[in-house]
Each structure stands twice: as structure tokens, then as C-alpha cells.
Amino acid sequence: MTIRRLIIAATGAVLALAMAACGSSSSGGGTGAAASSGPAAPGNGQRGGPAAAGTVAAVAASSIEVQNAADGQVTVNFSGTTTFTNRVAAALADVTVGSCVIVGGTGQPITAKTVEVTAASANGCGAGGGMRPQNGGGSRPNRPSGAPGGQNGNPNGARAAGKVTAVSATGFTLAEENRQTGAETDVTVTVDGGTTYTKAVTADSSALKVGECVTANGKADDTGAVTATAIAISQAGANGCAAGGRQRTGGTNG
């Protein structure tokens, strides 16, 4: 009787140890599953902005090297399907009703020092709607009408952006949209002999030159090289090419 009880007790202890071991293994697996099913960290390509932006350092038959202080040097590849635009000198005659403009100047009403002209797209003149600033920058947010813009580091500067609604021999009027409310405000812009104008025109890869500014939309591979769907070219300003951060590896730019 005693021997039988000892055997039963020993068997029970072995079973208990086996169940505890299984429970421990199951618990460990559950913890691993929970960890792997948590929110994923933002991956490459999550960040907005162009795939590459900066100064052209070298030009080859089907690629360019683009440099900026944030990213160093990035290879941008292009092909026959890549679209190109080039920002060239323009005049007041290129400011027409319905076109999109970005104005930098002083005062209120604004006396324009620079006027950048772009054709409106299907989205109008808002972000992604036909306006690409000069010198390789990303889309600029609209400021309240006549608000100080710090143009070229000048705290008394002013900036406005929107669709042209009227043009005269001494200036033009544009409708600037408030991005928070969607309301539009008329902004009067005066021009003079010191106003400079630029406009975006359709181009091809022959327009790419060392020292120019570019922004490239497209997709970056795991080496960081970009396959461009569109490249916008402009001339460097007094402070060079104003290039912001690029989109990370694997990202696309819409």
C-alpha cells in the first residue's frame, strides 16, 4: 500500500512538472507573439517631401548626382518616361488670369520683388496644385494676406500665393486661400522695374546642368538611389538651392 502511494505521488509530481514546463513555454511564445503584433515602427518612405532635392553636382546620360547639406549626395536616375520642368525668366505678360503665383516682396499692399508663375493644375493653386517654388524648395504654405514672411531673411518681408484674378499694367490681384478655413482673400500686388519674374516651362533632360537646383519625385531603392518620375529644375538663388529633407528609402512622392 505504501509503495503504491509512493508511485502515485511520484507520477503526480512528474505530471505537475511537465505541465509547468508547457505552461512556461506557452507563456513565452505568447509574449513573443504580442511583441511582434504591436504597432510597427514607421518604415522607410513614411516621410513626406520630394524623393531628392538640392544642387546638381554631376550629369550623366541617364542620371544626375544631387547634393544637399542634410542628405549628402543622392543619385537620381531618369528615363524617357520622366517628365521635366524648368524655371526660366519671365515677365509681367506671363502673369495671366487663372495662373498660379508665389509673390515675395515688402509692404502692404505687397510691392513684389519676385514673382513665380506656374500654370494651375486640376487641384488649383494649393499644395500639389500647380505651384512649385523656385530654387529646389518644397511646397510653401500660404501665409495670411500681407503677413510678414521674412523674405530672404528680411523680417519686414511679405509673401502671398494663390490664383491670379486680375492683371493691370502696374500689378495684379490674386485670391489667396486660408488653409485652415478654406476662405479666400483678395491680395493686391504692385510691381515695378525691380520686380523679377520666373515661370515653369516643359523641358527635357538637356536642361539639366551642374550647379542648378532640382527637386525629384519618384521612388528610392534600398541604396538610396531615386528613380524619378518628375524632375523640376530651377536656378540657384543668392543663398544657393533651398532644399528640405528628402523622402526616405522606398518611398514614393505623389
Automatic annotation (TrEMBL):
Residues making up the signal peptide according to the UniProt record: 1-20
Superkingdom: Bacteria
Keywords linked to the UniProt accession: Signal
Biased composition (Gly residues): 125-139
Region of interest called Disordered, as start-end residue ranges on this chain: 31-51, 125-161
Stretches with biased composition (Low complexity): 33-51
All copies of domain DUF5666, residue ranges: 162-231
InterPro entries the record matches: DUF5666 (IPR043724)
Name by which UniProt lists this protein: DUF5666 domain-containing protein
